[in-house]
Predict the 3D structure of the following.
Amino acid sequence: MRRIVLALALVMGSTAVAGGIMGGDAPSRIPIPAREFTATVEDTSGTIVKVERVTYNGEVFLYGNLGEAQVTIPFERITEVRVEPHPDKDKVNVMARLKDADPVTIVVEHDLPCYGATTFGNYMIEIEKVRRITFP
């Protein structure tokens, strides 16, 4: 019985190390989007990165709630995205400035990831850590 417990502890310990000491998973793989978009991402620390193959939770559109409705906003219609706090700490407000219409603000889950590729490697950031995304 002790051997089984020890073996289980060793396996779980190696899994924790493989997952990363800091507790997060490095973006070794990113989703391959249905359509490729390039954007500039500014995070809440002020760091600005040009990102290719941008996705929002693996999709090429934003999605969230507008009042009681669920909506999607395709990237091709967006020029800029701004992320702001929401009263519910598990959500954020995402304002999309559109090419052909008035801006719209939707409410999204705070921890949904944005992925992409940079000149130096893969990129992943949770939406709550984004200040602005600009599409050319």
About this structure: The longest helix spans residues 2-19. The helical segments are 2-19. The two ends are 61 Å apart (CA to CA). Residues 31-134 form one domain.
